[in-house]
Design brief:
The structure is a single chain. The chain is mainly β. 6% of the residues lie in helices and 35% in strands. It has three helices and 15 strands. The strands form four sheets. It has a five-stranded antiparallel sheet, with no helix packed on it. A four-stranded antiparallel sheet has the order 2-3-1-15. The chain is globular. The chain starts with 17 loop residues before the first strand and ends with a strand. The relative contact order is 0.19.
Length: 222
């Protein structure tokens, strides 16, 4: 009888298939207490020479590869996010090995990202009704906070205003997570919006199923 694959090998959480990180051997027991399992424990083969493209470079003499299931926003009390500090953000989360998925995430307390796990989701995240990223074709209509297309089309106007703010309030419905973040000088509105291109719509029960927490040292694999 064929052995059933472990849940961690194919999570099927929205776009996410796996959630992994490289861990020092001295940290394995502590990580297991948090639900992480080694690749041997989930029955994953050692892999081929290209495995590093997904999981990163591994020094097997002092490190191992571990897997888990990311915590979803739907499994969290929103109140637990109140008072957490935004210490960074990324527009490059998620990978399929040869490239990135472009998930957007706010880094909270320099510990974990609050990730909208949808391809190129930074175009669906707005700060004060201004998109974090967008296509250069739309720049004349509305300048995004961040652009990384090279030369004059490279800027980051978001870090200086967002990093160091603290989450004061959250409101969520099926399609939008609204976050109010405050600093000593100003209050900002951050929105994660669930948007699909025309013709690519699909049924999603709740936006909360698409938002996950990612350890800052881990990787979401699509």
């Amino acid at each position: 009888m064929k052995k059933e694959k472990h849940l961690y090998i194919n999570l099927e959480i929205g776009e996410i298939e796996q959630y992994s990180k490289i861990v020092p051997l001295s940290e394995v027991v502590r990580q297991q207490e948090k639900g992480w399992l080694t690749y041997e424990e989930i029955g994953l083969e050692k892999g081929d020479k290209e495995a590093y493209m997904l999981y990163g470079e591994l020094n097997k003499s002092i490190e191992t590869l571990m897997f888990n299931c990311p915590k979803r926003l739907e499994d969290t009390y929103l109140e637990a996010l109140l008072g957490r500090k935004i210490t960074g953000f990324s527009i490059h989360l998620g990978t399929y090995g040869m490239g990135g998925a472009g998930f957007f995430g706010l880094l909270l307390d320099d510990e974990e990202y609050l990730v909208l796990a949808q391809w190129n989701s930074s175009s669906n995240v707005f700060v004060d009704d201004r998109p974090v990223c967008s296509s250069p074709k739309k720049y004349e209509i509305q300048r995004p906070w961040v652009s990384n297309f090279g030369g004059e089309l490279t800027w980051d106007e978001l870090s200086d205003v967002l990093i160091g703010t603290v989450i004061e309030k959250l409101i969520i419905d099926n399609k939008t997570l609204s976050i109010v973040a405050i600093s000593e000088e100003k209050r900002f509105s951050i929105q994660y919006r669930l948007v699909f291109e025309k013709g690519k719509e699909r049924e999603v029960e709740s936006l909360q199923k698409m938002i996950v927490f990612q350890d800052k040292d881990a990787v979401l694999i699509v």
